[in-house]
Specification:
With 178 residues, this protein is an alpha+beta fold. The protein has one domain: Nuclear Transport Factor 2, Chain: A (Roll), CATH 3.10.450. It has helices at 3-15, 38-44, 54-72, 76-80, 101-108, and strands at 49-51, 83-90, 98-99, 120-121, 125-128, 134-142, 148-158, 164-173. Strands 1, 2, 3, 4, 5, 6, 7 and 8 form an eight-stranded mixed β-sheet that branches.
Length: 178
């Protein structure tokens, strides 16, 4: 590991607030992606276009960035806290659907092993429904060298408690645009 990356990691671990167990949308100051690799730096430069009710769309953009930060922080428990209990992810073997939080956690556990995140992501588009309860985020996925390698799409639902949780998620390897 390059010395500068190690220094940044230590600094972030000592100063970055955790999103584990957060019950509300974290403030913007808490959701900047960690700079642990070029992929995270590339994700930090992604500009987000919002549509629909701006407060809901902005909240989902912030939550998506906080969700991505769990990968940079290597925090599987925090990652799990963003998943709806009945979430459906199309990232199983052969693109099959994974049903439920526990299935996603089991399938994604390996991505959280090791000191460096295998990828980073950030929303470049977020659209919210008029009632502000359902939203969709999408954007690029970057490898550790900062090169775009895929795109993701996530559908979020705001619960009665105000928390946004992922209902559906789909990644498209190698997709240069939506």
């Amino acid at each position: 590991m390059r010395p500068i990356i190690a220094l940044v990691l230590v600094t972030l671990l000592l100063t970055a607030p955790s999103v584990r167990g957060a019950s509300e949308t974290p403030p913007a100051a808490q959701v900047e992606p960690a700079m642990t690799a070029d992929g995270d730096a590339a994700a930090a430069r992604v500009e987000t276009t919002l549509s629909g009710p701006e407060d809901a769309a902005r909240a989902v953009a912030e939550v998506e960035r906080a969700f991505a930060k769990t990968m940079a922080d290597r925090d599987l428990d925090a990652f799990a806290s963003f998943l709806h209990p009945d979430t459906v992810w199309f990232s199983g073997p052969g693109g099959s659907a994974l049903h439920g939080r526990d299935a996603v956690i089991a399938a994604w556990r390996g991505f959280f092993e090791g000191p460096t995140a295998p990828f980073a992501w950030a929303p470049d588009r977020v659209a919210a429904m008029p009632d502000g309860r359902i939203a969709m985020s999408m954007g690029p996925v970057f490898n550790p060298q900062g090169q775009p390698i895929a795109r993701f799409t996530s559908v979020w639902q705001r619960g009665e408690d105000g928390r946004w949780l992922i209902l559906f998620d789909k990644g498209e390897p190698g997709a240069p645009s939506d």
